[in-house]
C-alpha cells in the first residue's frame, strides 16, 4: 500500500470525487464508485477488477479490511487516505472503510425466453436500487432501463442495491418499446386502472414485467404493447403503492407460483 494521501488536491482523489458527484463523468468513463466493504466484496465475487481502491486510514489495520485487500488483483492500485481527507470525498455521513473505482459491468445477451423487468423513467435512486435487489432475489436477471432512468450505477443506487447489480444483466438506455415488441412471452404492465388482478395471472412462464415512473406511471406507448394491464388489489386506504413495493410484490408473486 502506498503512503497516506493527506491532501484533497491529490489528482486521484479529485477524479474519485468527480465520479461520486457527476453522472456524466461516470457514464463517459464507464466507471462506478463502490462505497464500503460489502459492495467491493460483491464486485470481487464476480471477478470485477477495481482500478483503484482507497482505504480509510481509520480502518486500514482492521482484520476484515486486511482480508479484503488481500483479495485484490495485482492490477488494482491500493492507496491509503488520511481520515479527514477521506470524509470529504464521500457523500455518506460516516466515511466507509474503502472506496473503489471499478468498471461498469457490461450486460450480456439474454436468452430470448428469459423473463425480464422493464423500467421506464424511474427517478428515485432508492427505488431503483430496491427494485434491482428484489429482481436479483426473485431470480429475474434481465433488467432493461429507459434513457430517462436515474444512473443505475450511481453511488446511491449501488448502496440501495446491496450488490444486486452484480447478479443481474442490466441494459442501460434501452428502447423499451422495441424490447417489448420483440418479446415472445407474456407482457404485463402494472397500472392503477388495470382490468385484472395480479393474483389472477399466470406468471409461471416467461414474462416481461413493465413498471413506470413514480409520478406518471407507464407510458401509453408501452401500455399499448402489453398483453394485460394488471393491478395490485389494495383493500385498504391508499391511492397507490411505491413503485419499488409494487415491483417486489409482482416479482414474488411469480416466485410463489413457480414454487407451488
Overview of this protein structure:
The chain is built from ten helices and eleven strands. Helix 6 runs parallel beside helix 7 and helix 6 (125-137) packs parallel to helix 10. It folds into two domains: 11-103, 60s Ribosomal Protein L30, Chain: A (2-Layer Sandwich); 116-259, 3-Layer(aba) Sandwich (Alpha/beta knot), CATH 3.40.1280. The longest helix has 17 residues, at 243-259. By secondary structure, the protein is α/β, with parallel strands linked by helices. The strands form two sheets. It has a seven-stranded parallel sheet, sandwiched between helices. The protein has a four-stranded mixed sheet with strand order 1-4-2-3, sandwiched between helices. 35% of the residues lie in helices and 18% in strands.
Q: What topology, given as strand order, has the largest sheet?
A: 7-6-5-10-8-11-9
Task: Round the mean pLDDT to the nearest integer and report it.
Answer: 94
Strand content: 15-25%
Estimate percent helicity.
Answer: 25-40%
Q: Which regions are unreliable across 5 or more consecutive residues at pLDDT < 50?
A: none
Cα-to-Cα separation, first versus last residue: 53 Å
CATH architecture of the largest domain: 3-Layer(aba) Sandwich
- What is the helix tally? 10
β-strand number: 11
Described by the principal axes of the CA atoms, the overall outline is elongated
Which class of secondary structure composition applies to the elements?
Answer: alpha/beta
- Rg, rounded, reads 20 Å
Number of domains: 2
Amino acid at each position: 500500500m502506498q503512503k497516506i494521501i493527506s491532501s484533497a488536491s491529490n489528482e486521484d482523489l479529485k477524479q474519485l470525487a468527480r465520479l461520486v458527484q457527476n453522472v456524466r463523468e461516470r457514464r463517459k468513463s464507464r466507471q462506478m464508485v463502490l462505497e464500503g466493504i460489502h459492495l467491493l466484496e460483491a464486485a470481487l465475487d464476480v471477478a470485477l477488477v477495481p482500478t483503484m481502491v482507497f482505504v480509510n486510514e481509520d480502518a486500514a489495520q482492521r482484520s476484515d479490511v486486511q482480508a479484503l485487500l488481500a483479495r485484490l488483483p495485482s492490477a488494482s492500485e491500493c492507496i491509503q487516505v488520511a481520515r479527514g481527507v477521506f470524509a470529504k470525498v464521500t457523500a455518506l455521513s460516516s466515511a466507509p472503510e474503502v472506496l473503489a473505482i471499478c468498471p461498469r459491468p457490461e450486460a450480456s445477451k439474454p436468452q430470448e425466453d428469459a423473463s425480464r423487468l422493464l423500467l421506464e423513467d424511474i427517478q428515485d435512486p432508492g427505488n431503483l436500487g430496491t427494485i434491482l435487489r428484489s429482481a436479483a432475489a426473485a431470480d429475474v436477471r434481465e433488467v432493461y432501463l429507459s434513457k430517462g432512468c436515474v444512473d443505475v450505477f450511481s453511488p446511491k443506487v449501488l448502496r440501495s442495491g446491496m450488490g444486486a447489480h452484480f447478479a443481474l444483466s442490466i441494459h442501460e438506455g434501452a428502447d423499451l418499446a422495441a424490447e417489448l415488441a420483440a418479446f415472445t412471452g407474456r407482457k404485463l404492465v402494472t397500472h392503477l386502472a388495470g382490468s385484472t388482478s395480479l393474483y389472477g395471472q399466470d406468471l409461471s412462464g416467461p414474462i416481461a414485467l413493465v413498471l413506470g415512473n413514480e409520478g406518471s406511471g407507464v407510458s401509453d406507448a408501452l401500455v399499448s404493447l402489453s398483453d394485460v394491464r394488471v393491478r395490485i388489489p389494495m383493500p385498504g386506504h391508499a391511492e397507490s403503492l411505491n413503485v419499488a413495493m409494487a415491483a417486489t410484490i409482482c416479482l414474488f408473486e411469480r416466485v410463489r407460483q413457480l414454487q407451488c
